[in-house]
Amino acid sequence: MAQAPRRTVGIVTGAASGIGLAVATRLARDGLAIALFDRDGDAADQRAGELRDAGLQAMAVPVDVSDRAQVEAGVAEVRRALGPVSVLVNNAGKEGFRRFLDISPESWDELLAVNLTGVFHCCQVVVPDMVEAGWGRIVNISSSSTHGGQPFMAHYVASKSGVNGLTKSLALEFGPLGITVNAIPPGFIDTPMSRRNAEKGRLGPGGMEAAVERTTVRRAGRPEDIAAMCSFLVSEEAGYVTGQLLGVNGGRNTG
Ligand code: NAP
Fold first, then answer.
1. DSSP string, 201-228
2. Model confidence, pTM
3. What domains lie within the chain, and their CATH numbers?
């Protein structure tokens, strides 16, 4: 007898903007029921409504990923509305630009709480569903800055390097249980976050244009470039890919 197709429920964090929105849209188009987690609940609500208007299955949940109680309540809401979660894309992130000697212990903690501990919270709360199902897919959005470091971004790069390490360790622990865990370290992607950084002169002299000139394929990345890789990594056919950092960066040397 043919097996009933798996009804896949996914959570994308930081899904109201930029890369997260593109990932949520792509996975919903792929047929997943998607929960858009974002600390900006109104924006997430609006985006989820637009996806539903396009005939896709989506719900919004206001969640700050750095707050364990909010993550637990948000995941419980998704389970009630859509069922157990088998796909998790940890994308929510906070940028940080400051000279190392000016990074206060408080701003260090604040940034790590979102970029690294937020990933820990979401994975720990969601993984039991995947273990129960014997199948799961986790994709963590880190950063290509982890390949070589980045001046004035020590806390950001440290947090994202932690995400890469967490990815590899979880892949080893949960691979035998049917769960894959990979990271995508994006290069320069044109999103509200990178436009804010360009406006503040954080991309260096020449702004976005110069950043494009430094990129091997001579264009900025699009959120959809990351979404396409996510779509593959959460698919059935990506079951032999785990513990990997899959650079989507227009040719940045990752060696
Ligand atoms: P974005 O346009 O600023 O979108 C990020 C979304 O995450 C926003 O809606 C943001 O809400 C939300 N968010 C922030 N903190 C959150 C929290 N604690 N809990 C829940 N949601 C939260 O940024 P993006 O450029 O798409 O970046 C997405 C991810 O890619 C980030 O992890 C970033 O570090 C990573 N990345 C981006 C680039 C790039 O070139 N764009 C390169 C490498 C890595 P608010 O607007 O309210 O903050």
1. TTT-TTHHHHHHHTSTTSS-B-HHHHHH
2. 0.97
3. 9-189+222-238 (3.40.50.720)
